[in-house]
Amino acid sequence: MTGRExxxxxxxxxxPRLVLFLVKKGATQSDAEDAxxxxxxxxxxxxADIASPAAWVRITAQRSWWKRLRPEVPMHDTDIPLPAGxxxxxxxxxxxxxxxxxxxxxxxQRAVVALYYDGFSTREISAVVGTSEATVRSSLRHxxxxxxxxxxxxx
Length: 155
Description:
Elements: H1 3-25, H2 29-46, H3 53-69, H4 93-103, H5 107-117, H6 122-129, H7 133-152
């Protein structure tokens, strides 16, 4: 397989997952798609130099989304509403509920939990968010506890 074929396979497999990752982090569907597209374009251009494509595109897409978001919403804001007209039924109801629960977590916990449920190990999450594995495990433990609390309280 050539580098181009490798990238095309990666793109087909990972683009929807990347969009969902950004939605879990609080992006609207359209913002997530734009940021994912930007990250994938950058990945295509630098494909030969990327050692861990899944992590690389998530970091790049998240930064792209943050740059677009910065003038509108401070990054510490944990209540990021969907804009008027956005249809939450486009995402399956269970996934929508999960996204809403994730959005209620503090930003550090939200990032760790979203990456964990996206299939990353604690070591990989540590590299992506720039903290120790112990901090990742702690954030994951606290985030899961908070999610359990919220799930126990009903919809």
